[in-house]
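Example record

Each entry pairs one chain with its bound ligand, iron/sulfur cluster.
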Amino acid sequence: MDLKQLSERLSAAKAQVEARGETFYPGPSRIHLAAYPPKERWDDWVELDSRSWPKRVEKRYMLVPTTCFNCESACGLLAYVDRDTLQIRKFEGNPEHPGSRGRNCAKGPATLNQITDPDRILHPLKRVGERGAGKWGPVSWDEALDDIAGRIRSAIREGRPNEVMYHVGRPGEDGYTERVLAAWGVDGHNSHTNVCSSGARAGYHLWFGFDRPSPDHANAQVILLVSSHLEAGHYFNPHAQRIIDGKHRGAKLIVLDTRLSNTATHADHWLSPWPGSEAAIFLAIARHLIQKRAYNREFVRRWWNWREYMQEVHPHTTPSFDNFEQVLDSLYAEYTFEFAAGESGVDARTLAEVARVIAGAGTRLSTHTWRSATAGNLGGWQVARTLFLLNALMGAVATEGGTYPNAWNKFVPRPIYLPPHPKTWNELTWPTEYPLALNEMSFLLPQFLKDGRGKLAVYFTRVYNPVWTNPDGFSWIEVLTSEKHVGLHVALTPTWSETAFFADYVLPMGHGSERHDLHSYEQYDGQWIGFRQPVLRAVRERTGGRVGDTRAVNPGEVWEENEFWIELSWRVDPDGALGIRQYFESRERPGEKLGVEEYYRYIFENSVPGLVERAAAEGLAPLEYMRRYGAFEISKQVGALHQAVVPPAELSDLKVDELGRAYSRTPAPANPNLVPVPPLEPDAAGRRRVGVEVDGEILRGFPTSSGRLEFYSRVLADWGWGEVAIPTYIRSHIHPANLAKDEMVLISTFRLPVQIHTRSANSKWLDEIAHTNPLWIHPVDARRDGVQSGDLLRIETEIGHFVVKAWVTEGIRPGVVACSHHMGRWKLTDLGQRQAMATVSLDHRGDAWQLKRKESVHPYRSSDPDTLRIWWTDVGVHQNLTFPVHPDPISGQHCWHQAVRVRKAGPGDRAGDIAVDTAKAREVYQKWLGLTRPADRHSPDATRRPYWLLRPLRPEREAYRLEHPAPAAGPT
Ligand code: SF4
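Structure tokens for the complex follow.
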């Protein structure tokens, strides 16, 4: 409704009310209740105070945008700041954000619970006594910074840079901290990705060079999902709203999920396969498309690297497309619907029906898998590879309603300084056994430390809780409590966690409304950039004040990491002798510290296409614009970049090789977008790869070795994995053939839609909705064992057991049980988040560990009266402690699914009990290590890893050599 219509409506309403002799009250905001506050009125927005009802008390707000930090979607938030008290009263959606479009899930508004959490950490703390003893004392930021910086400085100067490690869970930002580590010259980046998404990433990366898909659900005719994207998927809310848009436009939704998730309930076709059989289903559908000639032959001919496949695998056959099609016919012949039905347990007729629906999608087939099956199974990366095979067959790649490579829909701007790549290689994160792992072998760190492969002088955990999140948490406790392995553990965290208990310093970091970050994610075929900002800093500046350091506006001494890293880097290199300080100095005030204001001002003024002009049109500087609106859309539609014709100006001294790869001597045009792109090798004469020849035209193509979509992966073949170089089916470690008669499969990977891994434990609104994680068990299995809902069960894994309540439901396959990983939080003392953490005892004798619940949650008195209203007591069980590590030998992904025995609990068992033998955990680690094909035996070129593979904080090329010497001492 425009303002004119609004005014007419108000006049009419006023006349009606006054005709009745009553006083007209037009509503505080003079706007339709279902509309978002128009941005012109964000400085002074009026609403009725709900707590004053039935009195009409008007509240005036300043609306300040920031970004939600409660999952990877980075949805826009609007903080409602009371103009009288300057306190944040609530968070709602930011309608100016192109990804989330004003909408949020429950976790967005619950940011308010996080910032008002009575148990949050507000001041820096230093341990007192033994590590893990639970005693803490205050410490100043200065003292902590000096201690940490001194140790980092010593490690760098003494040639021990690999002893500095930064281990991040939810980054929530694009590239800032990687830049810090590059400036320090350490290969110290570690991530959580191998317990999360590297299986899916590997499958996609091997196809098109980037490691994520960007599905255009809103315009699809068929949406094919593996897992529960409507409630908890990657880019959850932004994708969920577009899936619903697609459904409203008539798209059919097909969901593969062994569990009846909320997403499956919305599906036109829900398939509940045996876990790990998903790739067999996709290959059966692919076979159907191939045999019925229902695939897009022209697309396959132009864009697959079929010629390379024929030359390498069928060298005695003429590499013509006709011959390739004949081979393709036979390649998947064994994957009949009956075969897939046998593997998956899904009826062959249902599979045939789904295949027909997919065949009818044409190029409007959007598909997505993330975590789920790709993170559950040995060979799970082939689930993503076989799923995308369907897109590649249909030509539904970078089409309207199809699936794009993510990087085309993402924008990472060039920052003020770009330090060079590190010169060192860190074997603790990138060991030779896993040369193709897409991310750091993070969850093996305790085992590597026990192996004696290295040690850590300074270990940062940041928004990361490996003791609770990772498998084999007791082995984490064993190394974190050993100063022989970890010299100093610094936990950068807004809240207490199971890992922070075993730190030396606990340093309070800001929540989503208390920090700066930049991010951009592939949520539709466009590009946007979002700006997270400390809300009260923006308020102070909007009202004419100045803020030097974000601690001045945050609660207690809570800081933001960006300022922390700048300060720490100055103390690591106070005189600039290490060459580090230069990357943290102001350009505007040479010799002084860089401030966050200048850092972001530089980016917005120099590195975001179109922002300067857009801001100027509103009479704003670019930084002001981003502070005011929180997001900027760079492009509404990006389209099919692989089809872009390379302009003649880029084709000087053009050479095209036998695979069609085009090389030229023209320098690359400047590009402000720093999104990670795999490096493309120059030709023997040093020409740059500019594209690929397709039917006589030089097109941009894909950033793969061949320039095309890689049906055949030369990387896999060259590094010793030729038998899986094309999309195929790998039987999972929990395939029925690998299970004992009395074993079932445990699915442990699913999220609860309203919880976050660690940071939501004191979000009271969320805790009230979801606070426990019972074991889903089918009535057939329950009847056999005499189990009813609420009964206690003992779940035995390879290394121990946990005790959990049963939930009997038909929403799971017989033979499979499921338990969400989101609950079972615990603490050792009174310190912790009391709304969702049970207090436990932790005992061990040698390798035998036991965790027992001493006290569950209960009402308590705090600054928030609602904590006296806590009615729930059960907070679930921490099952991940009982899982050994299962690293996939190719992708490096931890394969989460477990073979378990489900028994009725014994007389001594109590809910939440855990018992584990870490010696057994070590045996399982060694068994899976034996599945690998290490670089020192399989590398084709004496390097540690294919240079082409994406890698966070890529070291310089020399460091890739296997015989590259250990790091030298730095300047003293
Ligand atoms: S989906 Fe929910 S938790 Fe994730 S960023 Fe959006 S509002 Fe926050």
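The two ends are 68 Å apart (CA to CA).
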